[in-house]
Amino acid sequence: xxxxxxxxxxxxxxxxxxxxxGSKAASGQLTFYINQRFIPLTIFGVVFLALLAQxxxxxxxxxxxxxxxxxxHAPASANLWFILVPLLIGVLIPARPxxxxxxTTKGFNTSAPLVSGDSSAQLFETDSEERNIxxxxxxxxxxxxxxxxxxxKASVIGFVYFDEALNENxxxxxxxVVSCCSADAYALGMAVNWNEAAALEQxxxxxxxxxxxSVTLDDQVVPLIEADSVQAVPxxxxxxxxx
Length: 243
Fold this sequence. Notes:
Elements: H1 3-27, H2 39-66, H3 81-92, H4 103-106, E1 108-109, H5 117-125, H6 133-142, E2 153-161, E3 170-177, E4 186-193, E5 205-217, E6 220-232
Parallel strand pairs: 1-4, 4-6
Antiparallel strand pairs: 2-3, 2-5, 3-4, 5-6
Helix pairs in contact: 1-2, 1-3
């Protein structure tokens, strides 16, 4: 492949990658792939890719003006596939958050990493109904005397997941936690006790309100919500939680 043609394809692919990432950032779908704290770095990458593409287009234009023929050999054209393949995957496969189907490979957790002293103090001071699933699990991991949480009000949003370890009238209200990117995502959940649990659908997003208790799963004490209500809700714009 002539060098000028190779550079043209290279510039187009870089520009395409810049547009793709920029569109995902603008639509909010970029957080389906990465932790939100990396968004500024990604925006910088979008600008850098666009500038690099512009530089290549300028180089091609100058080469066309000063050379009648292009006899230089370019690097192997197979190198272009390193950009083309991920770009095609991103364009052809619709962006969507992880759901219960990912649990077959990623597994499910009912525990969360321990938190630092400062973070734990903030969680204790936070109104109980403002805590999310990750917050509750952090507290249960941090403090062995979980009975102090019994009777506190909880209000959490997550998707429904039925686990064989639970009773017939129980389910897990769940969220995926993303530390870096979707590749390292893992699901966390709080058990919910509700008489109408059988009427719920797997993966349905719900708002669960009730009082906190506990249940033992896999020899571990985890929070359980004695539900007063389970209300169907739309999936949140940001379905993941970030530690």
